[in-house]
């Protein structure tokens, strides 16, 4: 198979520029989803650990739901179902259509809600990894709950949670490919367009795989650096 590599150029005849823009969209939607998942995961973790009985049940139900439903179905629900809800509400309020839901927003929210269910488990495990003696010592010295949370729980739990958060980021990157069903021009969508336009399916889907691999590899390097920085001064267990 002879390949003219100029097809990946950044000129008018090449696909390099649009693929780069699509990769930027992939990283952007993934970052928004991951951050939303981190916030939701923190709230769910608190509800499970320190919440009342009904809050614990609510958090458990949320986690069971979003861990058990396919990611693609959640995206369909928020994008296509969301358009129907917005249209119904807009019409009831007397607004003129057409009504639409932004694919970026719908995709980020859908993946973020799923990520939150998994990140809650990461944060919960990190909290229980804090030695009980540390929390008891903080209580004995007269630390309030807010100060203990800020000075003891967050710094120590985050160190433990970093590897799990990195794994969740990698999962979110790969799940972002499903957002292409909304029409959002991210990596998967743009690769499919290029493959269909040029009839070079194997080549462009391979290019898409390389793009995702580059993103995930660079992300892994960043998380490893952050983890190493966070663990500075900590004694490592030798294997």
Automatic annotation (TrEMBL):
Transmembrane spans: 20-46, 58-79, 202-226
Pfam families assigned: BPD_transp_1 (PF00528)
Protein location: Cell inner membrane; Cell membrane
Domain ABC transmembrane type-1: from-to ranges: 19-223
Keyword Iron-sulfur: no
Membrane topology classification: Multi-pass membrane protein
One function term, GO molecular function aspect: transmembrane transporter activity
Keywords noted in UniProt: Amino-acid transport, Cell inner membrane, Cell membrane, Membrane, Transmembrane, Transmembrane helix, Transport
A biological-process GO annotation: amino acid transport
GO CC field: ATP-binding cassette (ABC) transporter complex
NCBIfam families found in the cross-reference section: HEQRo_perm_3TM
Entry similarity comment: Belongs to the binding-protein-dependent transport system permease family. HisMQ subfamily.
The name this protein goes by in its record: ABC transporter permease
Organism per entry: Pantoea conspicua
């Amino acid at each position: 198979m002879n390949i003219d590599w100029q097809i990946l150029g950044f000129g008018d005849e090449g696909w390099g520029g649009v693929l780069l823009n699509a990769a930027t969209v992939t990283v952007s939607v993934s970052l928004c989803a991951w951050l939303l998942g981190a916030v939701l995961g923190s709230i769910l973790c608190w509800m499970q650990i320190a919440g009342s009985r009904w809050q614990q049940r609510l958090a458990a139900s949320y986690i069971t739901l979003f861990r058990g439903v396919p990611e693609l179905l959640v995206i369909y629900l928020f994008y296509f179902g969301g358009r129907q809800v917005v249209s119904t509400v807009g019409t009831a309020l007397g607004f003129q259509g057409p009504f639409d839901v932004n694919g970026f927003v719908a995709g980020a929210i859908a993946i973020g809600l799923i990520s939150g269910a998994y990140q809650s488990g990461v944060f919960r495990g990190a909290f229980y990894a804090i030695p009980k003696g540390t929390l008891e010592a903080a209580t004995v010295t007269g630390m309030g709950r807010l100060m203990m949370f800020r000075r003891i729980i967050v710094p120590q739990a985050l160190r433990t949670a970093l590897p799990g958060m990195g794994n969740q980021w990698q999962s979110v990157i790969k799940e972002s490919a499903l957002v292409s069903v909304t029409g959002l021009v991210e990596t998967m969508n743009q690769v499919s367009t290029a493959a269909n336009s040029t009839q070079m399916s194997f080549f462009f889907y391979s290019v898409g795989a390389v793009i995702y691999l580059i993103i995930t590899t660079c992300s892994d390097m960043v998380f490893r650096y952050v983890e190493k920085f966070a663990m500075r001064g900590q004694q490592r267990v030798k294997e």
